[in-house]
Amino acid sequence: MAENADMLASSRCRAFLLLLLFVIVIACLAEEREIYLVLMEGDPVAFHRSSVPLEVGQKVDPNRAHAKHLVDSHDQLLKSTLEKGSYNKLYSFKHIVNGFAIHTTPSQAKKIKLASGVKLLEKDRRAKLMTSYTPEFLGLPEGVWTHGGGDRNAGEGIVIGFIDTGINPMHPSFAYDPVNPYNSNLSHFSGACEGGPLFPANSCNGKIVSARCFSAGAQAAATLNASVDFLSPFDAVGHGSHVASTAAGNFGVPVVVNGFYYGRASGMAPRARIAVYKAIYPSLGTMTDVVAAIDQAIQDGVDILTLSVGPDEPPEDTFTMLSVFDIFMLFARKAGVFVVQAAGNQGPSPYTVVSYSPWAMGVAACGTDRSYIGTLILGSGQKIDGVGLSGPTFGNGYLQYKLVLAKDAVKVNGTFPKTAQYIEECQYPEALDPFVVQGSVVICTFSAGFYNGTSTLTAIFETAKILGFMGFVLVANPAYGDFIAEPIPFPVPGIMIPRTGDAQIVSQYYEQQTYRDERGFVIRYGGRAAIAEGRVASFMGRAPIVSRFSSRGPDFIDHNRNPTDVLKPDILSPGHQIWAAWSPMSVLNPILSGYHFALLSGTSMATPHIAGIAALIKQNNTKWTPSMIASAMSTTATKYDNYGEPIMAEGFAINSLYPSTPFDFGAGLINPSRAMDPGLVISSGYEDYISFLCSLPNIDPATIKTATGGTCNHSFSTPSDLNIPSVTISSLTGTRLVRRSLMNIASKPETYLCSVLPPKGVMVSLNPTWFTVAPQGSQDLEITLTVTQPLE
Fold this sequence. Notes:
Helix content is 25%, strand content 22%. By secondary structure, it is an alpha/beta fold.
């Protein structure tokens, strides 16, 4: 019996062990794969001195040999460290960074992190988009273009790289004009043209000089939709085309939408060439694909790199400036490429910038003095301004039509599947009585559906077309407050009234003119209204004004928002209501489907303005380093608007303005003409950036060496000692001495007199107070800041 008991216990034990093993197996199977970015020790190709021994007469490309060596080392590490079948290598990075991207499980990633030669492992954070008249607003035709030979030469010989959603190669903004051939042969550039769906190989036409796509990260992270996620450089979204044409689109391309002519669009540098690196897809984007594109763009030889894309959020487990993304940008700058980056669209809250590093120029967005104002004309003669790129109702505003509130036009005893709160938003034609609304101006109300994002303007358009509205009015709802309205081309006459105060005027007039029975049903509609032309631009507003959505500083070093002594954003440029090229497929914005141009807002739109202007500066100053270009832009920017007053910024409340600060606009609004001849520049190099990193508080020098390979042999006393054209001190106590080195880039000696407008509660002294500096000579400047009145 005891023997039987032992056997039973043993059986139970075996059962328990089998169960435990089963649970472990299930847990392993449930471990989902993620994408990881891995940086390795050892120099990449761009910064490697070849040591490959050559025999007499042997011809070996040392760069190609070293690139192969790096790839082989990545493969060998993975093979020797991870289990077979547990991973998929997505990319080997080898030009400006030595590393790779891998799709594997967290447990396998831990093994890689501990492997010999691995410096840094970071989980992919995904990437997102940071979503004309501006050449005139910035003074380019009469200024920089004139000095450079006009629009026929502006940007000649410069290649701008765009990491984005691709490009629409058939758009006239990117057409090659054989009558006006390019003069330069681009011997420094060696890109390639990758064909694919909707992107034939001949899409690279001389204006577009290179086009590639990067999708390994996206394909590993999700199942792509073959109907929209084209594995080619074709832009199914429109964003990449918009960005590229803003920076380098052809001069004077007619902007026609819904048959209406809005003027002509031109890029900032219309003769610059375009290199496309598609890394964002309609379904998703990954930082893995973005950094792979950066590596390739630098290898190809772009002069300017445009990043209107960025991480979803700051890194959680590392310092902001030591993320893989920022390290790639650091080495792009080391390779001599000017990197311009969108500041982000999370404003107006502070600490929302996603451009952290001093080696990338972070761009904030503002509006121009151009606006599109629609007008609703009531039967009483009252005129109410609104928003919408809309043609007028028949009669151009002189003929008026029955005014009907959608809620009053609901079918009696009708059957339809949606709730009443959505009916008043004109989303469902089957809910409204066609005999009431046909030929009428119908009032639709911004309610729950628009508030939670389920209702759309597109649905209103369809309802209006199906039921034969003469026009529609989308009014604010006092229950939800004012709403933000941007001008969008309307295929039917319409207007948005986003302010509740104006909406109440419409409501009051409507109720006064509408007759109801004792049950509240309408027995006669007495109100009349018309919609005036809303597509003609007005040029009377205050500008620039920092846009509400534009992300704000201060800059910060970690997820706890500890500030960094670097001014972010760096500079301000137009990014609100920008006309530029579009892709008619428009898969993420159905309301813009079929259009070849779009009017968009975002720091994505501001960034290519700076990229194009950088191309103009580079064209005229071919030996300038990226930091010299950045300095020229910063020191010549303006902090005043077209009224001669300090630049204002939009706040949280709609239509509210407040005096802006450098944490809103950086150095100020870009001034291209002055940036061409700044007199002095304040520049830094790669070693200076390493010294800056080493001076940041709470960062171990070993962390710097691990991430960048640089050593902290010459760290600054404080981060504010980095030689950049601004001084930012997050916590000033007592007295602080800051030094800057200035270089004269003029062709003759120049004399400067120094002056300063000190911040409140701070005394600032300069040494020397004046100086003369020879051509290409340098002058050191000491800036002493002393607290005289501590802030309470």
